[in-house]
Each structure stands twice: as C-alpha cells, then as structure tokens.
Specification:
alpha+beta; three-stranded antiparallel β-sheet; two-stranded parallel ribbon; 5 helices; 7 strands; globular; molybdenum cofactor sulfurtransferase activity; pyridoxal phosphate binding
C-alpha cells in the first residue's frame, strides 16, 4: 500500500508454469551474475511506476531454482551461502564511525557547508544501502571482525564489502 493509492497484491506463490505460459519469465544480471526471474506483471509494474514516479519499472521475483551464491572474500573457509538477488551478501553491516572517517577523506563531501554533519552522515550511510547500521567504538573496527552477535543471532563475516 501507499498513501492515496489503491493497494496492490503480489502473490508469493511461485508459479513457474503460469510464468512460462504467459511469457513472464525474464533474464537479467545482478552484479555480473545472469539470473532468471518471474515478472510480476503489468499491473504491479504500473503501480510501482506511479508510486515512485519513474516510468518503465518492473518487479521481478527470483525463481526457486535460481540460486546465486556468495563469493567469499574472507579466509575463513565458510561454505558459499545463497544470497537471492542481493549484491554480495544477505546482510551488509555499516559502521557510522567508519563512514564519518570516510567523509573526512572525500573533499566533495567535506566541502558542503550548507549540510549539517548529521544530515551528511545519514545521507552517506544511506548510499551504502546497509541493513545493519552500528556505531562501533572506533572507525574501521569492523574490518577485523569474524562475527557479530545481535541478541541470540550470530552473523559470520564473509569479508569486507567491495562497494
């Protein structure tokens, strides 16, 4: 749903036979990997285009049989994990202290006196599209972490982000 718009529904049932009969299977690339997806249809595409004010959008759902795997950049000999349509991993941890450190190194970001420090930091953090945002004690601390525990869930590192 979206304010002032009719709601739209997307079936979570993976119906490959329907997709083949309607021609809604399509191929694309995600981070250099060829994937085959199921187009969710014109109604969904039109709704997304209207809501986001961007013409030509399509919503693709990954086929169950189409499995992309991590390409580990660490030396911890972990087995490749399924990452669906994510860039590099299912989760990307961002340390705000590291982003602040990076901002100080990029002249274009420092030379914006009209933007206050917190707004600038939030904007740059958003550019990395992380889904775990932390404030570690020091910048670049996370480069040496092999795992992090949140509550009773343990996340293992597959290595540094290449973005």
């Amino acid at each position: 749903s979206f304010p002032y718009m009719n709601s739209i529904r997307v079936s979570l049932k993976n119906d490959t036979k329907f997709a083949r009969s309607t021609g809604s299977l399509c191929q694309s690339k995600v981070c250099g990997d060829r994937i085959e997806g199921i187009d969710c249809g014109d109604d969904v595409a039109d709704w997304l285009s209207d809501v986001l004010c961007i013409n030509g959008l399509r919503l693709l759902r990954q086929k169950d049989e189409d499995q992309r795997l991590t390409k580990s950049t660490s030396n911890n000999d972990s087995k490749a994990q399924s990452i669906s349509l994510s860039n590099q991993a299912q989760f990307l941890l961002i340390n705000t202290k590291s982003v602040s450190w990076l901002i100080d190194k990029v002249p274009d970001w420092v030379d914006q006196p009209e933007i206050d420090t917190n707004t600038r930091l939030e904007g740059v953090v958003d550019r990395f599209r992380g889904n775990l945002i932390i404030d570690a004690p020091e910048e670049l601390d996370e480069q040496n972490w092999q795992q992090i525990t949140i509550g009773n869930i343990q996340f293992n590192s597959d290595g540094p982000c290449v973005r």
